[in-house]
Amino acid sequence: xxxxxxxxxxICGWMECLSDPKRLRILHLLQGNExxxxxxxxxxxxxxxTISRHLKVLSDxxxxxxxxxxTTHFYRTILEExxxxxxxxxxxxxxxxxxxxxxxxxxxxxxRRLLQRGRDGQAFFAGAAARWDRFxxxxxxxxxxxxxxxxxxxxxxxxxxxxxxxxxxxxMIAPFVRQVIGVDNSPAMLKAAVRRLAEWKNVELxxxxxxxxxxxxxxxxxxxLVLALTYVADAAGVIRExxxxxxxxxxxxxxxxxxYDRDDFRRQLGQRCMGFDLDELRRWMTAAQFHxxxxxxLPPEPKVKGPxxxxxxxxxxxxxxxxxxxxxxxx
Length: 331
What we know:
Elements: H1 8-17, H2 21-30, E1 35-36, H3 37-44, H4 48-60, E2 65-69, E3 72-76, H5 84-97, H6 101-126, H7 128-140, H8 143-150, E4 158-162, H9 168-173, E5 179-184, H10 187-196, E6 203-207, E7 220-226, H11 235-244, E8 246-257, H12 263-269, H13 278-287, E9 290-297, E10 309-316
Parallel strand pairs: 4-5, 4-7, 5-6, 7-8
Antiparallel strand pairs: 1-3, 2-3, 8-10, 9-10
């Protein structure tokens, strides 16, 4: 027990600081990290005026300290420097909020930002190597690297693009495989896809529900489900359908949203659910006879405004084969 007792005014002030979700998110980020205002704006996806206002409240109440380096102010929270009563309040608030989907999204963006900060420091010493990356982009663009990776696909493959939308991914894959089957339930999306894919005779577009795919059993070598799972009522059922259309040993790739709590975002995009828990997704894939080879968050790209994404991939089980869950080998 501490020998001193905080005054009521101090207790009320600390509780007022912790009553705002944005300030709680800032404190999560600043515990153990020293961040500038611009970095906080990027991670929290908020304008500088908003972040600066919250930082002033936290600074005035001595929740954070700052130092100036050139024209930049860096902020940090150190538990040992807090008043003991304030520290106890924060520890309770931190425990109750650390599993918020928004806080987890913040941590993913923070990891990306800190990684970029480290790369910036390395770039200072890299010299010619850093210049080469810039020159290569200026001279040749970016799409050639994507084409190089796609060229590793077997040219005999039949690939299903499930929830194909306007056909952007189908157009990328078509030059490298035997056939692409795009499936979508929206006439407007399919109409746009027809225009985009007119030059590719090996692309077939079909209207259909992802829960009842218009594709025969075991017809495809690979299937993609990119940013489509949040729009379906029965995600586990769609994954089972994805498994059904694949040949034994066929590959499945899913990209979608991690859990988030921005209901305005969900309504704006017409999504049915607010992201997926990766443990649950892995269980769905395993139940659908997939050997899961990867299931992890994707690093958020700079300046994107939507929730963070995940990548999951699996191989359709070959009946009677046993897999070592540690390394994915077949016995």
